Amino acid sequence: MGRTADYSQQVCSVAATLEVVGDPWTLLILRDAFAGVRRFEQWQEGLGVARNVLAARLKTLVSHGVLEKRAYSDHPPRYEYWLSPKGRDLFDVMMTLAAWGDRHVYGHLGCPTQFVHKACGKTFAPALICEACGKPVGPGDLARIEGGAKATVAEALAEAVEKQAV
What we know:
- Helices cover 45% and strands 8% of the residues.
- The chain has helices spanning 13-21, 24-34, 40-47, 51-63, 85-88, 91-106, 153-165, and strands at residues 67-73, 78-83.
- A two-stranded antiparallel sheet has the order 1-2.
- Helix 1 crosses helix 7.
- The protein is globular and about 55 Å long.
């Protein structure tokens, strides 16, 4: 994916996620997909990314099942890229990254984009909440214990791609 880091031999969910979406262009492609961008030309124009880089990132996102490729024209063949359920699961991550940038990069300058919750009309701020008890969770509120997975990132991704193909 155009980066020098190799996470394939680690046994770590964060490393596995970075292997799929850790490239900066990929995160911007996903940001735009959540904003409704679906077509290659829209991404290329909006991001200014080289066509070969964009094509490679879209191909990777499709191969990992994050985006779904759908034909919208047969002559000439043209495709749109839609967020799959797996891709939509990245919404929380994208909102949290935006909030971090608002707070720690833009800070006193104001936010480049604000999100308003349609149900209540208030500015949205993401929060990490325990699904079981409903209480907010911070770094000191969690105990880290070993899980059952022993597969490396490469092994886990290979199995995920294989299951996706079935």
